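haha ok so turns out i had the wrong file open the whole time. this is the CORRECT one, sorry everyone. sequence first:
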Amino acid sequence: MALGVATLLAAEVATAVARPAGPSPGERLRQDTEAIHALGVSGVQARAIAPDGRQSVATSGTADLKTGRPVPSDGYFRMASTSKTLVATVVLQLEAEGELSLDDTVDHWLPGVVRGNGNDGSRITLRQLLQHTSGIHDDLPGYTTPEEYYQQRHDVHGPEQLVARAMAHAPDFPPGEGWAYSNTGYVLLDMIIQKATGHPAHQEVENRVLRPLGLDRTRWMGTSPTVPRPHARAYQLFGPGSVVDVTDQIPVDHENLSWVTTTRDENRFLRALLAGRLLPPRQLAEMKRTVPVSAEAQRLWPGGRYGLGLVERPLSCGGTYWSHEGGDGGYITLNGVTDGGGRSAVVSMSEARGDTPEHILDQENAAGALIDHALCAGSPGTR
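then structure:
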């Protein structure tokens, strides 16, 4: 009997030594979603995938402030600017096929479109559009008050209109001599994809990326103001006591930003991309050639650098990861994948706390911490 007890105690000690201190990856993911919700974000869903394919999923908050129903664990949300990585992937595939060159000028494909007020499409390359170094000023329509949201939410803007708005401004800097985030640059890339292939950019994305990967829950919604079910309602904080349901709206750039997806699909896309399943090695290497970003962007992406439709960010456990966040229509999404596509994570928040720079930064930092913790799980010295 004594021997049995001793053996049992020894086994318990060994188990205690082997068991890592601190929460498991799944528990940490749940804690991090709750930390985001504690900031005042109405709903949060997150999914992390380990190198062996095991998934951790966590949700927090509510999908509907009126009913209190729970957040779906794989609900749809607007992909927003993460779709820039889809566009960049298609452009680089076309480059690999010899259909275009990253050194082609905008004028080569869209003669006379980038003109006026010092803008010159003959001096701007496709690489500069992809990397936000073109200098083209961004001037997309948008809303900053509830009244503007209700007035503008169903407005439809064609790509030519959006480019014309940008051309009403002087460039932010000469091409290649600075960095400034420009949605208009990706409007132009959509137009160039259509010119090069004869098909709309969203059709090329579907044929070249979504179908081969089986991403059937990533969909282009066009001018539809709705989000497929299931989904959390999207909210925008306009100020103290002013949270508005902004789910019902047509994205300003419906050609580029009208994608919806899920945490499962977004993880699968990023993992496939960084694993080399979508681009030949030379084009993937081009995508990962980065430049410094602006001081403003550094606040959101500390230590970040921008490639071709990809952001490189440092990990607290060493090394870097690749991502492209998206924010549109109340949905804010951060994501990350390690080099080679081994480990990934996506967190989607269904409320944008965009009324003050402090709220924006707090939300970004909390979501960034979730991604960092998920990608560092299992690293020596991390929990």
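Residues 117 and 170 are 5 Å apart (CA to CA).
again sry for the mixup
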